[in-house]
Amino acid sequence: MSRTAKVNQVILLIMDDVRAEHLFGFIDEGKLPNMALLADKGASCRDCITSFPSITYPCYSNIVIGAYSGYYPKEGSGVVNYHWIGRTDPPSEGKKFPIIRDYGAGRQLWRLGKDLGKTVKTIFEQAGEGNFLSALNVLFRGSEVKIPSDFTSELIFKIAEDAYKNPGDFFPNNEVPRITIIYTPITDELMHKRGFNSKKYINEVLSCDKYLGSLIKTLKNTGHYDDTAICIVSDHGNYAAPNMYDLEPFFQSKKLTQYDPKKGIGDFDAQIGSVGFFNFPGNTWHNHPTIEQLKKFTPIKASSSAINLFELLWEIPETKYMYYRDDDNTPDHGIINLEYKDPKTGKIAKGQIVFEGHGINQKTKYIFEDKELFGYEKHEEAEKLLDDKAHSIDEWLSATYQIDFPMFIDQLPRYFKNPRTCDIMTSTCGELAFGYVHGKTVESSPYSHDIALKKSMTVPMILGGSAEIPNIEIPYCKTTDVVPTLLDLLGIKPHQSVVGKSVFR
Ligand SMILES: [Zn+2]
C-alpha cells in the first residue's frame, strides 16, 4: 500500500441504464439491501450527472477514462457516439472514404479500445502496475478481460467473485485484482425492450444487488473486504417517448440518399432517437460542410434547385432544438449555434455557446438574443451563470445539477469539437422518438436515452466497503469524477487528460 492509499483494491460496477431516482427509490423501499448498506456506511450521490448525449458508449467510456470527447486525436476521447462517421483527412483506417461506425453492428463493439485513441487512458492504464480485471467490461484496455459464455449478470458477477476466490486462475502472481470493472449490459437491453417500469427490468436490478451481496460475502471470507472500495454507477438514465414516428417516407420525399462508405457518395447519414445526429458532405465526404453549404444543398437525385437543410430538418415533427458548429472553430476557440422553436408560436429563438480552452481548462459562455433557451432563467443558481462570462465544467455542474439540461453548456462544445461528430443535431426532448439509423427505421420501442433532460442525465453513485471511505452524502458529482476518486483511494494521481476530480477533495 502506498503512503497515501486508503484501500488496496477497488471494484467498479457499471450497471447499464439505471436512473438515479429509480435506484435510490428501490433503496428507500428496502429492495436493495446490499447497495443500501454500502451507501449507509460509505459515500453516495443522488445527482451524479453523466455526459451529453446520454448514450451508452460515449457515456460508458467517459466513466472508464474520467474524461470527455474533444478534438480527437489530439485530446479527448475518440468514442464520441454510438454511431459516428470517421471524418479525418486522410481517411481513418486506411479506408478510401470515411467509415460509418456502429457499435451495435457485427463485431464493431470490440473496436472501442482502439477508437478511444491514445490521448486518454483507461483507469487500468492510469494505475500502472498491478493485476487488473474486466468482468465483461467492454472497454478493457490495460486489463485482463474475461467474457462469460452468456452475458447474464449472474455469470458476469461470478467472474469477479472467482478472481477473489482463486486469483491464481487469473493472474500468475496469485494476487487479487487491484482494479476490477464489472459491467452488466442486460439492464439496458431490458429497459429498451420492456421499459423502466417493467417487472423484468426491476427484477434484474434487484438481482444485481443479490449478486453484489454474494461478492461482498466472498470479499469478507477471503479477508479483502476491509481494504476494498466498491463503487456503483450507471452510464445514463432513461425516458419513455409518448409516441414513435417513422421518418423513412420523409427522407424519401425529400430525395435525400443514404451515404455509402464503400463508394463515398450519398447526401446524408443520420441516427435519430429523440436526438437526431445529421451528417452531410462538405466539399467531399471527408470534410464537414460550412453553414452556407448546409443552407444551399443539392441532393444527388434532386432535379430542382438547392435546398436549405436547416429548414428541411425543422419540418421533422416535434423538433424543438437545433445545434450546429460555427465555420471557423478551432479546438481551443469557437462557437456552437443554438436554436429553439417555441411549440406554440413556431417562433425560433437563437443563442450561442462560446468556448475557449480544452480538457479540464475548457470554459464556456452561454449567450442568447431575446429569449433564454433551456429554462435556466427560472432557476436561481443557473440564472447566476447567465452573466456574459465564461464558466468551468464544475461551475455549470454546481449550478444546473438539479434541473433539465444539467451541465449542458459545457458538454455540447466538447461533443462538437470532435471531427467524428455530426453537422446538425436536433432534439424533440423526448416528445417523439424515431428509431432511425443509417437510412432505416429500426427501433419501435419508446423506451430510450439520449436527451439532455435530467431523467436521462442523472445516474446513481455509491461508494462503500472499506471503513476508510468517508461516510458522507455528496450533493452532486459527475460520472468522470468516479475514476479520479477511485485512484485517489488507491493513492494514485490521475492522468493529465482526466477532467473529473476526486469527490473527497
Ligand atoms: Zn447504456
Give the arrangement of secondary structure elements.
Blueprint: E1 9-15, H1 20-28, H2 33-41, E2 43-49, H3 56-65, E3 83-85, E4 100-102, H4 112-115, H5 123-127, E5 132-135, E6 144-146, H6 153-165, E7 179-184, H7 186-194, H8 199-221, E8 228-234, E9 239-240, E10 243-244, H9 248-253, E11 269-272, E12 275-279, H10 291-295, H11 309-314, E13 321-325, E14 333-341, E15 348-356, E16 363-368, H12 380-383, H13 393-400, H14 408-416, E17 424-427, E18 432-433, E19 436-437, E20 440-441, E21 447-448, H15 454-457, E22 458-465, E23 473-474, E24 477-478, H16 482-490
Parallel strand pairs: 1-7, 1-8, 2-23, 2-24, 5-6, 5-7, 10-18
Antiparallel strand pairs: 2-22, 3-4, 8-22, 9-21, 11-12, 11-19, 12-17, 13-14, 13-17, 14-15, 15-16, 19-20
The protein binds zinc ion (ZN).
What does this structure look like?
It is built from 16 helices and 24 strands. By secondary structure, the protein is of the alpha/beta class. Strands 1, 2, 5, 6, 7, 8, 22, 23 and 24 form a nine-stranded mixed sheet that branches. A hairpin with a 7-residue loop joins strand 13 and strand 14. Bound molecules: zinc ion (ZN).
